[in-house]
Design goal:
Length: 285
């Protein structure tokens, strides 16, 4: 695709079209249903900034969503993955989308980014985890739309990753799924967020928690922001919640952060309450 072709294609796209492409660039993969929630509000939801459009019912929004996505697909701007979330019964809402070849080139030209990203079919586990993280990000946008919180900053992978030096001077990485700063009243709430699908074993959870402790000990975030963020695991159910809480509580090397109430484990259903109230205001069992 030549520069003139890219410029012409950009001019032919609406602001919402470009927003959809940017969302796929940030989150790497989204289902039709997630794109609907993010970009096609229904009449009782605030309009997406700049679109001026809403739909009377969720069905009308869903029809409009698949119509726009099909058009973007016809220009090779996006492509659907072979795996469908929820199986055939999910219909078009379960289709998983990622950037297509033309979409990737268009956004690289738009951002002046020379680095080409390859979009291949990832593993089912990777897709499931990516979509879980994207769902939490969209929940944050929805809570901000509804006035439940003010969303000051939201970073997805890899933007939310942090690098630091260990006590021995070796470079290390902390790789959360999301980083968010929200505000309520006069208070800001800083959070690293982990989307948990109940697939990781105890040693993996403990290693990640210890990495949070090492990052806290480096003092980098505190120097910039004056505080260390909460680390929030968002899990599918109460059984998993109890299991992760037990893992963290039984690890003696984590007692410093555990007693400082840095770690929080909430279910997906509890996540909006944690965001509205702030992690530090949620009792930790």
């Amino acid at each position: 695709m030549k520069f003139n072709d890219i410029a012409s294609l950009i001019e032919s796209l609406s602001e919402r079209d470009l927003s959809i492409l940017e969302s796929l660039r940030v989150h790497r993969a989204l289902t039709t249903a997630l794109i609907r929630r993010l970009h096609f509000p229904i009449s009782n939801e605030p309009h997406e900034a700049g679109t001026g459009k809403s739909h009377a019912t969720e069905m009308a929004a869903a029809v409009a969503t698949i119509r726009v996505l099909t058009r973007l697909e016809s220009h090779h701007l996006i492509t659907r993955m072979h795996r469908r979330i929820g199986g055939v019964r999910a219909g078009s809402s379960g289709i998983v989308w990622q950037l297509g070849a033309s979409g990737e080139r268009l956004l690289r030209a738009r951002h002046g980014d020379p680095t080409r990203r390859r979009y291949s079919e990832p593993s089912p586990a990777f897709i499931a985890h990516t979509l879980a993280a994207a769902d939490l990000a969209i929940r944050l946008y929805e809570l901000a739309r509804d006035g439940e919180t003010e969303l000051l900053r939201l970073e997805a992978e890899p933007e939310c990753w942090r690098t630091f030096l260990s006590a021995h001077g070796a470079r290390q990485w902390l790789k959360p799924d999301l980083f968010a700063i929200t505000a309520s009243g006069d208070y800001e709430h800083h959070m690293f967020i982990e989307a948990d699908n109940a697939t990781e074993h105890a040693p993996v959870i403990v290693r990640k928690a210890l990495q949070y402790q090492r990052y806290a000990n480096s003092g980098i975030h505190q120097q910039e922001h004056g505080l260390f963020p909460s680390a929030v695991w968002v899990v599918p159910d109460q059984k998993r919640q109890a299991a992760i809480r037990a893992m963290l509580a039984s690890e003696p090397r984590l007692q410093n952060l555990t007693t400082a109430r840095v770690f929080h484990v909430v279910t997906v259903e509890e996540f909006p309450h944690l965001i509205a109230e702030g992690p530090e205001n949620i009792p930790t069992p």
